[in-house]
Amino acid sequence: RFQATPITPIVALHKKPGSSGSSGNHHSAAVAASSGGVTGLLRRSAVVPSHGTDASGDWILVSVGGRSGWARKKQPSQHFSGFTLAETFAATEGWMGNHAFWCRGKCMLGSDAP
């Protein structure tokens, strides 16, 4: 599950797992971005399928909208958002369209709804 926040409203998906350093600072994130290349961006909170982790356990392979890429797992010491395990979730969280859900998912409006 990726939970967007005002500090991290998007997350990049990389071609390869980046630096596995556990420092969690901006320098290691920049190294990861430059070494792996970006395949896509996730621009909202969502539950996405995972296809495994790298050898370090710091990166997970996820699929979003037909694209796959490596994303950094959220570490317990991080104050910003990242990917975390979702044991359970509502079907509306897993829906990848830009639809609006009302009445706890009983009513769905198209992406052009206000």
Summarize the SSE layout with pairings.
Layout lengths: L10 E4 L11 H11 L1 E5 L7 E4 L5 E6 L2 E6 L18 H4 L5 E3 L4 E3 L5
Antiparallel strand pairs: 1-2, 3-4, 4-5, 6-7
Number of helices: 2
User: Beta fraction of the residues?
Assistant: 25-35%
Radius of gyration: 15 Å
Multimeric state of these chains? single chain
Largest sheet: 3 strands, antiparallel
In spatial order, strands of the major sheet run: 3-4-5
Low-confidence sequence ranges: 20-33
Residue share in helices? Answer: 10-25%
End-to-end Cα distance, whole Å, is 26 Å
Q: What would a concise description of this structure say?
A:
The protein has 114 residues and is α+β, with helices and mostly antiparallel strands.
Overview of this protein structure:
- By secondary structure, the chain is an alpha+beta fold.
- It has helices at 26-36, 91-94; strands at residues 11-14, 38-42, 50-53, 59-64, 67-72, 100-102, 107-109.
- The protein has a 3-stranded antiparallel sheet with strand order 3-4-5, with no helix packed on it. A two-stranded antiparallel ribbon has the order 1-2.
- Strand 4 (59-64) and strand 5 form a beta hairpin.
- The model is unreliable at 20-33 (pLDDT under 50).
